[in-house]
Amino acid sequence: MSAHLMSLNTATVREQMSLRQCIDACARFGIAGISPWRDGVAAMGVDKAARAIRDAGLAVSGLCRGGMFTAGVGAAGRQAALDDNRRAIDEAAALGASCLVMVCGGLAPDSKDLSVARARVQDGLMAILPHARAAGVPLALEPLHPMTCADRSVLSTLGQALDLCDALGEGAGVALDVYHVWWDPDLSAQIRRAGTRILAFHVCDWLMPTTDTVFDRGMPGDGVIEIRAIHDQVTAAGYRGLTEVEILSHAWWTRDADHVIATCIDRVAAYC
Amino acid sequence: MSAHLMSLNTATVREQMSLRQCIDACARFGIAGISPWRDGVAAMGVDKAARAIRDAGLAVSGLCRGGMFTAGVGAAGRQAALDDNRRAIDEAAALGASCLVMVCGGLAPDSKDLSVARARVQDGLMAILPHARAAGVPLALEPLHPMTCADRSVLSTLGQALDLCDALGEGAGVALDVYHVWWDPDLSAQIRRAGTRILAFHVCDWLMPTTDTVFDRGMPGDGVIEIRAIHDQVTAAGYRGLTEVEILSHAWWTRDADHVIATCIDRVAAYC
Q1: For residue A209, is the peptide bond before it cis, meaning its omega torsion is within 30 degrees of 0?
Q2: pTM surpassing 0.95?
Q3: End-to-end CA distance of chain A
Q4: Quick check: A147 and B150 CB within 8 A?
């Protein structure tokens, strides 16, 4: 019933299904959209993946992911990150993705300096933005939960992401995942501020207890996030895209993929 | 060499030492202060603990902890939390603690509503503040890392804590633990805003990877936090108190207590 409002992020069943199988499953379940990861796209071949997704009538709510500007060492490392991001933009364009989701990177190797890492993120985004604009692929900056600041994203809050969008200008927006931002006392105000710059809306849930800082995300409804309340705020701000279910979970990866997907559809209906 | 600037939070060696043993160790190592937990104080008896700490010449940089306003169910549960907090204030006064550290509580039982939890925290603080003022015990609101929002503290950032202090007025300040706030893009500005309302300064470190959301804190220097930089900002804001080492860590709890304490002293010298 809610499949027509939903997009399946392929990471949700990444241990069970190839991209090809995900596309088929989305078609079979009547799911409106898909959000593939680049490794799956590469394994299938970008042209073949684009054709299969188009043939299945699926929207591409995002490509996961660009970013990681801080990972490389030295000038060569920085250049490699920029090159890789430009390739990601080209892939997103080929897939007709509505955005490229950007996980911007944590601290630089052997560095504790947050300001250096943040500057590298901003410089990296500035450097690839012309390519993204030319390709017609908006960059969706995703603030990640502060517990991932050291190793995944020094971009931690929606407010910080919007400050960066302000600096970047046209072609930059945000990807909002309830898992990363639900705790933020400033969330409602920043969603209003974001308005139509929200390019993607991701859902999963915060489990109590949470036993892994990356791979213990919950199925919507199994945790404590008021997903519908956030969804309603995002809609009120002007977001008209799909609700993308992205669950990185050792537990759900052990389960039958069709069961996982059917559960996602039910939960989006119940909680979004 | 840095022991005279340091306070030992007894949780750092809670699996190895009683409060009595912690007091003796602080005296033996020349550590300037101690920050006991209430269970240890209760086990020893508050008067006996107060006398022993005084006889050892130790400052009490805080009593851990008050708060948890959201834990109880119904009116009786709320009242029990207030009563317990008033007892904590009395104990802090008896110990001559420079503040009562407040871990304010997570979501209420069976509730996902953050605004309800935040309101209960504020109401609870308002209710006990007159008792705290009368006892001369400042309440040190401790923002906790957002990964503890569901189960420990809906108070997540220094800015949010200071907003609450503004609402509470005299007798309320903050306890700043680098572990909880190091990731915050607004940290420097909020430290300046806090000024002399910083009542306690706690250090440990953020490990990469972090394997437990509560009990995997690192020894200063073993992780990625720029502790000295934050320390310098706190000092510049006007803080003149001790640097309290609080390490909740399954790993450090398995080690010889004297070794742990000696390492703390060395690391405070090197990183604070």
Answers
A1: yes
A2: yes
A3: 12
A4: no
Contact B156 A206 (CB under 8 A): no
The whole-angstrom distance between B49's CA and the closest CA on chain A is 35
The answer, for B271 touching chain A at a CB cutoff of 8 Å, is no
**Region of B53 on the Ramachandran plot (φ > 0 left; ψ -120 to 50 alpha; else beta):** alpha
Residue B89 near residue B67 (C-beta atoms within 8 A): no
Tokens for A216? 């213990």
CA-based nearest residue to A220, from A231, A233, A236, A234: A231
| Smallest Cα distance from B165 to chain A, Å | 15
Is the ipTM higher than 0.95? The answer is yes
Min distance B93 CA to chain A CA atoms (Å)? 32
Return the SS3 of B230.
helix
Residues of chain B in contact with residue A147, where contact means CB-CB under 8 angstroms, are: 145-147, 210, 213
Nearest to A65 by CA among A42, A88, A43: A88
Q: For A149-203, write each residue's pLDDT tens digit.
A: 999 999 999 999 999 999 999 999 999 999 999 999 999 999 999 999 999 999 9
Contacts for A136 with CB less than 8 Å, ≥ 6 apart = A93
**Inter-chain contact B157–A114, Cβ cutoff 8 Å?**
no
Among the listed residues B1, B45, B47, B7, the one whose alpha carbon sits nearest the alpha carbon of residue B26: B7
Enumerate domains of chain B plus CATH numbers. 3-271 (3.20.20.150)
Cross-chain CB nearest to A107 (options B113, B149, B224): B224
